[in-house]
Structures are given as structure tokens and as C-alpha cells.
Amino acid sequence: MIEIITLAVLALSSIYYVYFITRVRIGLLSLSNAKSKRNEHSISVVIAARNEEKKIEQCLQSLLSQNYPADKFEIIIADDGSTDETSSIVKYFAERFSNLHLLQLVHDSSRKTGHKPEALAKAIELAKGEIILTTDADCIVPAHWIKTMAGHFDEGVAFVAGPVVESDSNSFFEKMEQLEFLGLITTAAGLIGSGRPIICNGANLAYRKDAFTAAGGFNENSGSNDDESLMNQIVYKKIGKVVFAPDADAVVTTSSSNTIRSFLRQRVRWANKRGHYEDKSILITLVGLYIFFVSMLLTSILVFREPQLIQPLAVAFIGKMLVDYFTLASGAKLFGQKVPLFHYLIAEFLHVPYIVITAAAGQFSTMQWKGRKIRR
What we know:
single chain; Spore Coat Polysaccharide Biosynthesis Protein SpsA, Chain A; 2 domains; 7-stranded mixed beta sheet; two-stranded parallel ribbon; 13% strand
């Protein structure tokens, strides 16, 4: 009996997974027609920074070197209670560039929860630009980033998501992390391209300020209500279109986590944000995918007791591996990346337990960001 139930769940969930990934790939193919046009909107680049003294100078230099009229964009750094030299570095640049501003938030030491959304919201409140661009303080943006992202704001477009890649490294673990990160961005791009936005990355986003207001902004009392929630609110409330910028000039580079511990902590934090959706069909989609991963893991365990399950498990795994590879290869081509076959094969064997464990941990663990707890 248990064999029949296991096979039924594995078969149905595998079909759903293949359908989902195929939809992602079709969405990626549709992005080939997405072209940035010449639009010189007024832009406000907004960054929430906390204890980023090692990275923020490179970030600022890349932002101040933009191929965009200096009188058409401003940069607002919201220093979220840094305890290092972050604010001093920003002040140094602000004294030399009139379009760079520092918003220094007073850190309440008695407050134990993180408030990155609040820092972003306060900066957006001061922003003069029609379009808000966001990235992270540890990121580097290309010289045409602003121009390229702004060029996707055709009439009716309220939100533009852009590609993010991790900086190249020869480290085995970092190569694996780059591959996993590429998978996330590829999935985000494909879903947006298919007309079904679900996830995005706050290191490269743009949205109209009036769309931010119409969507209700951020819930400042919740660390889980971030840019991804904003995107879903814009879709749910039909405020405007959500598009993806696949251009090479829109690719933002970020650093890897460096250690397995920091990587897992970040991914658990990201998993923690899932589930806060007014559109319940998104939650149903994610639950359906999770059932697939759980069924794969349980079947792998049951194989030791029921050897006859090994054949259907192998079929499901090979099917997953093939659709994953071709979809990932499409994303890699789009973003100027490569899919190293050796690392990919290892990643596929780790993918199922990794998803099951991090997704479960994200629902029950306490998030942390820059030394602060983040309230769900």
C-alpha cells in the first residue's frame, strides 16, 4: 500500500515539477524580445546599508560612474544603525558628489528586530525620482545599469526586475553557490517572462514611486515584507505590469556568502519570507513544488526497504536533471554565465535534501540580518 501511495505522489508531483520548470524555460525564451529603450526618467537609487565598510566604497564608485545624466539621478544611502565606518565612507563621497545623500537612522539598541524595510521606506519617502532603483551595499553595478533599467519602463510598466550574478571564484563551494544562485535568478526571470511573477532579488529592482505608494509600501514592522512582497502586491492589485530586464548591461554583481554557515543562514532567511502572499495561488504553487521535493526524498529513503522503487525514482530524478539543465543553460546564456557540468551533477544530488531542509527551517527558525533578529 505504501508503495502505491509513494509512487502516485511521486508521479503526480514529478509531472507538476516538469510543467513548472518548462513554464520557466518558455518564459526565458520570451525575454529575448525584451529590449531597453532610451528613456531618461528621474531616478532615485536607494540602498539600505548596515556594517558594509568593506564593500560600500566599490558600490558607490560604480554608482557614481553611471552613464546617465548626473542631474537626472540621485543616490540615497540609508545607514541602518551601522556600528562600523559605513557612514563615514558615505559622508566622504557625499561631500564630493552633490547627487549622493546619506540618511543616517538612529539605532535603538533596545530594539532587537531588524528593520531593513523601514530603512528603505524612509529613503523612498525622501526620494525625488519618478523611478526607484534598489541594490545592495555589497554589490557592483555596470556603467549602463541605470540607463538600461530605466529603459524598460514603457507605458503601463510599474516594476522591473533585473539579473544578479555572484562574482566568479575558483573555490569549489563558491562555484556551487554561484550555480544555485543562477538557478534562483533564472527561475525568477522565467516566471516573470511567463507572466507569473513570484520571486525576485532586491539587489536589482526598479519600480515607480507612485506604484510603491499604491501598493501600500513596505510593512515596516515585518522584516519579511520586502521587495518580493511589493512585486506581488503590484500584481495582485493590478497596479501595473511587471517585466524582467535580461540585458547584459543590467547585470548586477554580488559577493558570495564565503562560508557554508553564512550561505545556509541566508537561504533560510529567504525561505522564511515565503508564505506572506495575498494571492494564495502563489502559496499553492510553492507547496506543490515542495511536495515534489519531499516525495523525492522520502522515496530515496524507502528504496532501502522497497528496492522496486528504485526504477521510478531513477526516472523521476533523470527527468528532473534534464529539465533543470536545459532551463539553467537557457538562463546562463541569457546572463552571460556558464553551467559547469561537474558542479551541476553534484548540485543535482544535493538539491532535493537542500530544498527540503532549508524550506522547513525557514518556516520555524528565527531570521537574522547583520546581527539583528528579524520578525516574520
